Structures are given as C-alpha cells and as structure tokens.
Amino acid sequence: MNRVHLLCAICTLSSWGCDDETPSSDDGPANGGAAAAGGVTGAGDPPAGMGGEAAGMGGDSSGMGGEPTGMVAPPSGTPPANPACADLWNGVDETFIECEGAAAVVAWSLMDLTGVTIDNEGQTWSPCVEARCTADEILVAANALPHYDFVPTTPNALVMADTVYRIPARPSLVDQEGAVTADSLLGCEDALAQYARAPNQATNNEPSGLCIQNGNAQVAYDELMDGSRFYWQQLPCLGYAGFLTNGSPYFGPNEGPMPDPWGNPLFAGPNVAGEPENDLRGGAVLDMCGGHTAFSMHYHGVNEACFAMDENRHPTASYAEAAQTWSLDTWLNDACESASPIVGWNADGYPIKGSCICVERGADGRCTVLKRARSSWAYQGLHSHGERPDTLAVEGNACSGHEDCCTDNNCDFRCTYSVFDAPQADGGTVAEKRCVLLDYAWCTHQYIDRSVADVADTHFAYLDRCNGYEGPDGYAYHATGSFPYIAACYRGAPTASAGGGMGMGPGGMRPGGMGRPGMGGMNGMLPSCEELGRRDRCCGDGMCRGPETPENCPADC
Amino acid sequence: MPRPRNTRKLPRRLLGALLGASILGLTGCASDESTPGPSALPDTLPPAIPSQLSIERFGAVRYQLTTDWFGATPAVDGPGYTFVTDLGYRVHLEHAEASLGDVELVPCDTAANWPRRLWRTLSPIRIAHAAHSAVPDATNARLDVIDDLMAQPTHTAGPTPATGVAYCQAHILFVPLADAEGLGVSGGIRGTFTPPDGGEPQRLSGRINLRNGGSVVLEGAPDEIIPGATVEMVRYPAYALDGLQLERLTSLELGFEFLSGLAKTTRTRVQPD
After folding, report:
1. What is the C-alpha radius of gyration for chain A, rounded to an integer number of angstroms?
2. B228-240 pLDDT, tens per residue?
3. Are the C-beta atoms of A522 and A198 separated by less than 8 Å?
4. Per the count of CB atoms within 10 A, which of A226, A255, A403, A530 is most buried?
5. Which residues of A touch B212 (CB under 8 A)?
6. Cα A51 from chain centroid?
7. Where does residue A434 fall: left (phi above 0), alpha (psi -120 to 50 degrees), or beta otherwise?
8. Mutate to test the interface with B, among A120, A156, A296, A343 (most CBs of B within 10 A)
9. pTM attached to this predicted model
C-alpha cells in the first residue's frame, strides 16, 4: 500500500478521518449505543482531532461511514486496552511498539467493546477485541464472540475461542514462485459426478481445488484480458481466513460436507429479513449479521449495519434493528449513497469493506464516483462441469419463489440471488433470483475475467477474483451479496493465520504457534493419501490435481 | 448492539425460586390445564434440574408444547393477563404470539456440556464444521404454527426417531411465518405497562420477524434407557420480559427480546412412554 493509498484508506474509515459530507439521516435507535452497553466509560476515545459521525443504520450502507470531503490526521498510537482481553496476551512474547501509520488504521478500526456485555442464553459474557503492534505485524486478540446477544438459531452453543490473529503491518503481494495457472486447479467434475450418483453424499474433500483443505496453499495466476497477470493464493476451505472488526473470524464461502455437501453459506437463508419460512428450512443458516456458530462464532457474510460504530468505536445498532437491513437484492442492485467503511481484515493485511466503493476521488479527497461492488464470480451451475443430470434440471431457471424450484421441502434448490453471466446486459451480468443449488458453493460458481468489461454506464464495479478492488483508496476486499460474499482468495501473502488444515478454526489458534494458511506438509511436501486417509485429491492417488504440483507431489505430477 | 436487559438479577430471585418450586412440586411445571397463579406469589420460575435422556435407537420421540401463564393473573379490565416483571414493571398483555418452527433434542456432546466442550475445544483432532449449524438431529420436528399464547393451545409434533445417543437439552426455534397479510412474524406482544416508579400506563407493542430460539435442559428423564418418550415443553410468557427496561426498546427489539425470554424460560419434562 503506497502512501496515497494509505491516506485514502484512513480517510474511508467508518468513524473518523474525514469530515462528513452526507451525514446520516438516522441516528440509530434511541436505546442503542454506549448508553445501552452499561459501564462504557469512554475508554478508547479516538485521538484528539479525530471527530467523526455516529454511523446510523438505515438501509444497506447508507449513513454508514459518510463520504469524505477532506483529510485530517490519521489515528495514531495504540488504542486503550480492553480489560476483558488482558488474559489473551499471556504467552505472547513480543516487543510491542506504538501502532503508527497503517498499523494504527487497523488498530483503530476495531470495535471498542470495553464494558459491553452480551447475553448467551442467560449467561452474561464479555466480547473483546484489541490490537497491539510490533515492527512487522499487528496482533489482534479476541475471544471471537459476537458484539450482540447470541441468537441461538441452532443447537450449536456459543463458545469463547481465545485467539490472537496476526496480520502483516505492510501487506505484500503473494510470492509468485511456483505459481500455477488457475485452470489447473479445477476438479469440479468430481462434484458433478458425485451429485449425479448420490446427491446427499459429499465428496470426501472440497472438490474445486480453489480453496485449500489439506497441504500447502497454492499460488495461482490468471492471465487477464487487459494484459496483466493476477496472482492469488488459495483461501482455506474451512476455518479462519480473516477477522471482522468485532474480533470474530470469517470463514470462506463454503460450508462443510453436510448438511449440503460443501454448501453455499448464504443460499439457505432468507433473501430479505423477515421472509416467511413456511416453505424453507435446512441448510447452515446464518444470523442476519452473517454469522453462526460451529466451534466458534464465525461469519460467511457481512451485513454492514451490524458493524456500524459511533465515533468512540462502540457498536451502534441492536441486532433486531440492524438485521432488518438484510437484503441480497439491495446489496446487489441498489445504487450506493456513501462509501462503505472497513468491517474487517483479511489475513494478508488488506482491509475488508462493505459493498460500496469510491472508485474515483477528486484532488480534494471528495469521492466523485461511487459504485456498488459486483463479484466477478457468476453462478454457472454444477451442471456446467459436464452432462446435466435430471436432478439438476431446474438449476439456473428463472424463479419468483421457492415453489418454482422445488416441489417439496426435500429439495436441494433455493430461489435466491446471485450474479449471472448475461452478455447482452449492461456490464455483462445481471444479479437476480434464479433456482440455485445449495451444494458445492465453489463448483456452482465460476470466476469470469471482467478486467476489460465496460461498466461505465452501470452502477456497479467489478471486483477481481479475490473479491477485491484496487482504487483510489488502495486495495480492499469488499463484502458482496453474492459469492464469495467476503473473499475468494488472498491477493497478498498472509503472514500468520490458521485455516487450511482440516478443522483449524480460530479456537485452536494460540499465540506464537501459527503458520501460513494451508501449511500442512513437511518441507513443503503434501501429505500422502495414506497419511490423510483419503482416496483422491491427495499425493499418491495417481492424479496431479488440487493442491498438487511437481514440487510438492512429484509422485503424481 | 447490547440491549438493555438487566442481567444482575439472579440472587434476589432465589427465594422466589424456592417458593415457586414448592408450588409446582418440582413436577416440571404445569400442563395447559393449570390455572394462572396469583401474581403476588411467584417471583421466578423454579430452577431447571438437568437430566440425561437415553432412548433406544429409533425409539419414538414426541413433543408436546403448551403455554402456562403461571406468575400472571387474568386481567380484570379486559382480555389478557397481568403480571409484574422482576424489574417492577406492571404489564398487561392483551395479545402474545410466537411462531413455532422446529424442536429437536440436543445430544449431550453438542449441548452446553462443559467438560465435553472443553475437550472438543482443546482436542487436536477437530473437524471444522462437524456439529455445524443447522445440521439437525434426527429428532428434529417441524411445527410451523403461529401460536396464540393467550389461547394456550397444545401443539404436538413427532414421532421422530432417536439416534441412540444421550440427550441433554431440547432446542426450540421460532421462525418467521406468514401472517394473515403474508408478512413474516416470529413473535409479537401487545398491551400496556406501568414503569416501576409508577405513572400512567404506556402502550406496549413488540413485533419481530427474525429467527430466535434457545436450548433448555431436559428435566425428569429416567436413569435408564427407555423405548420412547414425550418431551413436554412449557412456555411461561409472564417471565419472558424479565430483565428488560421496557421503555427503552423499539418494537423490533421488544419483540425479539420477548422471543429470547420465551425460549430461555421454557421448561421441559420428559414423560417416558
């Protein structure tokens, strides 16, 4: 991130850094905010001169973050400590320094949850998140609790998962050495074959090869139509990929092997808050902020209203109010009113923002062109990987309701929103409701190079493969209303995180013991099929696929 | 995000708990035939006493859901019930509804079983999304009914097959269902309240359209493996507003908190077949 980008990134922080040209029309619920938290005493006030706005919560991203008109001094220093986080630093043997520059942006982008308590089915718990900085990294301690009362929509209990995340203080692009072409990773024909054979039974592993489940994370590249080459690294299929400003991790855009094989995290949920569920049920449904529990609370999507903060970095909206803004249609198709703030950080050190991007700024820092982020991943369907079985006959059909896709409740489809390739449409895509498959989130979507797409007359801007955008504010990932919802890969090199290996959720992460995502093998070699207890997509199955390369698996490649 | 529910209330309620327990005889609370108790007597519900339910594999699990206005009295000046919350709000509810979605038993391994959960958290062998959200137990049953809590109907569900594992909790899920206008509603209340410091009654109106639920311990299960059972689940609306500062909540928040309270104060009773 160069200096200009850094300043601009600071400028678009949700609460401070800029004067507000379009102040929120909604101050949020009267009972929300610090007063309701009890015991919030102003700890974590922003540095002097960092005045800001109380992010309101109206529809989608409006009123959140405001549109900057000029730049003021960036936040500096380390925010005040949160006593609830104190024990999380035990065992962290680092030399901390004041957070400055880009590191301060990270530190001051996190919620101040000092004094905040949440209800966990009758128990009072204290979420915590706070950052400290070293010369090379930003360490973020959190207990991975939501900042709002737990919503027990499933029997899975909420657990505290003490964690110290690490992200680089200076993001750097992925190491290009050993990179392979993205096309060499695809293995979705396995998913189609499995679905045709036994739709309720998952393939042993996530079949696409586009995320890393075992072994080393692969760096791959796309030759883009604009003549450039885009390098990226696989995201973990399961487990930690980055974290949000409330200290909870986010996971990649797929679920586990059941109930819907490697299913889509958002397809099973409602299209809009409050949608009657008489004909819907099943799937790994998220709460209306985008999270749910497994071994820890984690998010697969982001409802920006849930992460709105006031000038003291306190969350502003109650769950019940913020959840009402859940609307895939809005997040995909409505024009933006203001640039989205930072809602989290990817493990490579780049920020995650909401779906509204400032794509052009004037010399005075004012945003002159604002666009809705649109994913370059289009729903192509599982059937696109081979011969369409009868059981996929409705896939991709236009629909207005569930009944257009299913004849009973035992159905693998939903009528919901995604982005679809549409060469005749402005910009080349449409975002609308169609019959989509709950299963195989990666294999039902396909990244389509939009580097030369003409979007001048549209309200949206295409993101890259990783769901990021390089603009006047620097590079950032953007949460979207369609796959991959947060990110599909790392554009930068993740310094330290878990994930990758089976089951390495944040609950297992302890200070000092974390390696690069997906670092599973010894000396860079993939574990053998025997070691993994697998029959395919591992080293020794006779096929060079998935994460296998000549370097890490000469036996197969 | 935090909401104004007073959570420092347990100690003062112990006395009431004992009193309530004596009234109910620790029977797991009453059925739908129970008459409303005098509002002056119970300060709280009796504490739930956990037990572990073991049913033969494929044994039948049935559910019976009822509502009990224990802790409230029928309103003398109109329909509904009156009661006093633990924070001293005098409430008159004229209408209360909750949309019953799913019920299911929660295996002890998944439930809030601290030793097991601690082991699972520390264990080096972990599968990220095992026991993941919305992977229902085989005992999952759907109701899909907007329950008029004032009318106190009894709803039944099942039979569903037990899986042979031990169960420690029951999970109840409220979901948005289509009301007469086709709008989603998962819970709602309407009436009046008078603040603890007195004054004129104020309107009370809450309505929510979001999922909410909770897991509650199973009570009264026998120590032996049984061929089947009916799990009685009793909701106590008169306690669902405890801990809330009612004048500080929006309609959405009030509706949501009402559902939270309704789930948390649900009591179960296992009746072996």
Report:
1. 22
2. 999 999 999 999 9
3. no
4. A255
5. 151-153
6. 28
7. beta
8. A156
9. 0.81
